[in-house]
Design a protein that fits this description.
- The protein is mainly α.
- Helix 1 crosses helix 2.
- The chain is built from three helices and no strands.
- Helix content is about 55%, strand content about 0%.
């Protein structure tokens, strides 16, 4: 039977380096995160406004038409908000600020 090896030892017998890994440039992750957050926001809005989590109809042509109508509806809502100068998202209040507002009332 072979003796148990410690998890920190490598196959070549050397221990791994304890130096921190070099930092990646911040721009590579932040651009991906910005794109992803925009897509996630659009999907959330589609689900919240049009109920697109489940298709109402069966079959690919009907489902495609439902998604197209939902996209048109979202675009019209966004255009209306932009033309009237209303922001689409609500301003979020933290838990402590919400408690402070409820105590003040």
């Amino acid at each position: 039977m072979e003796a148990a090896r410690s998890p920190s030892s490598l196959a070549n017998g050397k221990k791994p380096s304890t130096k921190p890994a070099p930092n990646r440039p911040a721009s590579s992750g932040s651009t991906k995160y910005g794109t992803r957050s925009g897509v996630e926001g659009t999907i959330h809005q589609a689900v919240a406004v049009t109920g697109m989590r489940r298709a109402r109809y069966r079959g690919l042509p009907k489902t495609h038409l439902e998604h197209a109508f939902s996209a048109v509806a979202l675009n019209l809502l966004r255009l209306d908000a932009w033309w009237n100068g209303h922001p689409l998202d609500r301003t979020r209040t933290g838990h402590l600020a919400h408690l402070d507002l409820s105590l003040a009332a």
